[in-house]
Each structure stands twice: as structure tokens, then as C-alpha cells.
Amino acid sequence: MSISTARSVATKHCSPAPRRRTILDETHVTGGRMVIPAPRAELEEAHDAFLSTGEADRRVRPLVAESWRRSMSDGLDPEHGLAPLDLDRDVLESWRAQHPLAVAMPVIRRLLVEEAVDSGLLVAVSDAAGRLLWVEGPAPLRRRMEGIHFAEGATWSETRAGTNAPGTALALDRPVQIHAAEHLLRPVTPWSCAAAPIHDPDTGAVLGALDLTGGDDVAGPHALSVVRATVAAVERELQLHRLQHTSDLRPHAAQPVLLRALGLPAGALAGEHGLSRLSLRHTELLLLLTTHREGITGDELAIALSDDDLAPVTLRAELSRLRGALGAMGLSLDARPYRIDPRVRTEVDAVRARLAVADVGGAVDLYRGDLLPTSDAPGIRRLRARLRDELRTQLLRARDPDALLRFADTEHGRHDWEIWRAAYDVLSPASPRLDRVRSHLAGLERDLR
């Protein structure tokens, strides 16, 4: 995907420029309603008035006025405050290496950073808690922006950095643009920015935000369109990476086959052959077989599959059909006892491998939902509960705000009071997510009464 593809519609009235075209040279036409901020001089007057009176006048967009009020609620100093530098270089390198957005940085650099350099802009990527993990662009501009702490390792949130595009995009979970004196902190008012949240393509969890920062041109509709198009490409890249890269699931020299069953009503086998969908019963059988690598008897399988008596002839028929399906993929299923081909690996194996090395964030990224949630087989119910408990126990113990938020944002974490409470307890007062976490937690507590 090229940047010209991302900017699919250009204004037909733009005359050719004698210089090289850059990221802001075209206007992207969208179907949505665009709210244009007031001119810079008027915004500066409105900004001064708000700092004097605490009231935002009609020249200030409602989105910005609400953000100003949120930013001021914890005693931010709008005249002298700067974003805190929370991560030093050693911690930052470790944090970036394990973050799920690291695999998407080549896409961001290809689609946005390369042209941002020509346009005199900075591209920043934050985590879900608002910390800037990558800030890239022209070196002179990066050095200049370090003066206002717009730098890697800094936390840009409404409560600590005032109204700004990445912090407000995370707070609202929507794309936003902030122009000039719409920023609350006075040192930041010379700049404009456009940002959009990045979501996990499988779970919908917020992974972070992508931001474009520069001069007044960034306040135009085309800048936000480019950011949104790049975010869409990033989310596609994350999805492709999960489908194509299974190195964590390859403990054997032979080519593996991955059984996918997390968050799915029935499983699928993914390997060199492609993707083969399975029935619910065959998925249950494979999951039980992979948890008994040493072998399992027919009687034990029958008990694990049903609370009722399962006729031996019925079980043998299902196993015979499964053996045929596996054979078509070059996989074996032995009998007496039943034993599955060691090349069959599962998402359960992958999550547990991450937990074994205390990589809780990696385990959360792999956990796309509860194991085979439609199954009522006793053995699957036990396996489902055990895997979820193992993940939650380590997640609560690790107290990693980014991992907690990524789990809490999912369908399987949305109603988990303990996870949301843990996220609230460990989030920095500077986190742009704090208000939303507090509000969601209050709703869960009302439901529990």
C-alpha cells in the first residue's frame, strides 16, 4: 500500500507544484462532517480567556473545551507544565521490543515517516497508556520538539500534558486533530497534531495511538485522513503477521500445524496447506488430545467429551473421521492409546509458552478470547477455565498497565471487575485512559450491587 493509495481522493483543482509532492500536498475528501477550528489569533484569545476565567467561549470546539476541563481537573499548570519523561532509554528499549506495535513500525515508516521527513513533520506512536514509544522525523525538528518533551519515553496525557492529539484520541477512542492554541499547555501552542487510536484487529483492544505533528497544515482534513489510512494499514499488518508468523509455536523441526480455537465457535487448522475449518466435535477432540501428549484412552476421551454416557461406537466413528481429515494434511492420529501427531500445536501452547517466560503482554496479545466458548464438554470447560485463570493470575500479579488495558478492552475482559480495578490502581494520574477506566469501573460496581 502506497501513500498515494492511502490518500484515495485528491482535489481536482490543485495545480501542479514545482517541488516534490509531500504528505500534505493533497486534500483528502471524506464523507464525514469536518469541523474546522477557529483561526489561530481567535484561538489564542479564547485560550487566554479560558485560563483567566475557566470558561470556554463559542470559538472553542466542544471537543476541545471538554478536554481543557478534563486536563485542568487534576491541577495541571497550563503556563509551565510539560509532559513527564517517564521511561529512560534502557526501559524504553525493552518496552518497545515487546510491544505488539513493534511489528507494524516498518509499515508506518514506509507509509508515513518517509514522506513526513520531506514534509517537515514528526510521526509518533504511543502505547495504550499514552507513553510515546517511537518519535521519528527530521532530526532538527526532533531536537526542537524535545524542548517541550515531545520525545520518546514521555507520557502525553490530558492530565499531565494538557489537550493534545494522541492523549485526547486515547481518552475518547476516536481520531482527533488539535490545532495551535487548542493545546492547553502554552509551550505546545505553536504546533498542530492529528492522531488516531490503533486497535487490536482480533479483540478490538486499544494498543496505542498514531500521531502526526507539525505546523498549521496538520490541522487540515487531509492530514487526519492520511493518519487514519495508515492506522487501517497497521491493523491489517497486525492481522497478517499473526496469520503468517507462528515461530512461537514451532518447537519441532518438522513443519507445525496450528490449531486455532481461542474466541472461536469452532476451530481451524492452519499450516502450509492453508486454513482448514473443523467441526466443534473435532476441535474438542484435538484440544483434548493435545493436552494428553502421552496418550489418552477412549473411555477417558468419552468422559471428557460429555457428562452423559457417550457410546463407544459414536466416539470411534468421530475419531475415524478426524483421522481421515488429518491424514489429508499428512498428520497422524495413533490409537491404543489415542495420541496426536506432535506437529499439531495449539494457541493454548502459545499462551502458556509466553506465561512461562513471564511475557504477560505477549500472552495477552495471543489470547483472542476464551477457549472454544461454545463447547460444553467437561474437559474443554476445565481447560478453558484453567487457561483463563493462569493468564489472569499472572496479569494481576504483573501490574502492567498496558497489558491490563489491552485485556480489559476486549469482549472477554469488558465485565471483569478485578481486571478493571487492577488497571485503575496501577494507571498513572497522567494516563489519558484514567477517566474512562474510572467510569467503566463505577458501572461494573453498580451492576454488582
Tell me what the structure shows.
- The protein has 18 helices and 11 strands.
- The longest helix has 24 residues, at 221-244.
- Mean pLDDT is 83; it is low at 1-22, 25-35 and 246-253.
- The chain has 449 residues and is α+β, with helices and mostly antiparallel strands.
- The protein has 2 domains: 3-244, Beta-Lactamase (2-Layer Sandwich), CATH 3.30.450; 248-360 and 367-391, Winged helix-like DNA-binding domain superfamily/Winged helix DNA-binding domain (Arc Repressor Mutant, subunit A), CATH 1.10.10.
- α16 (401-408) packs antiparallel against α17.
- The protein has helices at 3-6, 40-53, 62-72, 89-98, 105-119, 139-145, 158-161, 165-172, 221-244, 280-290, 298-305, 312-327, 347-356, 360-366, 378-398, 401-408, 417-426, 434-448; strands at 122-127, 132-136, 176-179, 192-199, 206-214, 257-260, 268-271, 274-277, 333-334, 339-340, 344-346.
How are the SSEs placed, and which strands pair?
Elements: H1 3-6, H2 40-53, H3 62-72, H4 89-98, H5 105-119, E1 122-127, E2 132-136, H6 139-145, H7 158-161, H8 165-172, E3 176-179, E4 192-199, E5 206-214, H9 221-244, E6 257-260, E7 268-271, E8 274-277, H10 280-290, H11 298-305, H12 312-327, E9 333-334, E10 339-340, E11 344-346, H13 347-356, H14 360-366, H15 378-398, H16 401-408, H17 417-426, H18 434-448
Parallel strand pairs: 6-11
Antiparallel strand pairs: 1-2, 1-5, 3-4, 4-5, 6-7, 7-8, 9-10
